[in-house]
Design goal:
163 residues, 83% helix, elongated
Amino acid sequence: MGKLTVGALRAVLVVVLAGTVLVQAGMVWALVSKSDPEDGSLPLTALRVMTILGMVSAQVALACVGRLVTMVRRGTVFSHTAFRYVDGVIGAIVAAALVWFAVTALNAPGQRDDPGVTVIMGGIGVAILGVALIVLVLRMLLAQAVARDVEAAQMQAELDEVI
């Protein structure tokens, strides 16, 4: 992975992380200050808490991806340590999907006249879970690569002993 690619990815990760922190700060401020009155159409407090939780899941995924990028740059990604970070990404995506399903359930009563919105939101939640499955498949590929790397190292060690 080139230095430019790593630098660009790190810049994107930092910008997105900063954005999520700003959104969280705004949500916490709105919760603490109670600055805008709820008119009862939506339970804003619950939505704000869910937004904060969703941002936490995004931040966990960003931190894990950042660590994986560092491992790729150092050439150590084909190790058992990488699984911890890939599992972190999968967990964060599943958590984000669960938060999205909670938002969908909270929004559903207001959509009785137009249930299509709830169906679409549910479909988006399923798509988020699909991303977690894709990352799980990539984890399996990483496991195969690590196994091959270990096997190659053992064969090299045996070859070195023979020579």
